[in-house]
Amino acid sequence: MRIIWAKSGKPAILQCSVSMPNDDNFSLEWRKHRKLVFSAYGNASGHAAPEMQETQDLYV
Prior knowledge:
single chain
């Protein structure tokens, strides 16, 4: 587990050390307390979960 601190209203970069397959058939998810924070599929830039955007601290 890794903790990432981010300022409210500022972007946070979530590093991923997982090797990615060469095709587009994969998805990534970041979760906080088992709730989805961010997800991406294939080469898409991904989507943040709106209900998690009002929190002051982001722990991943």
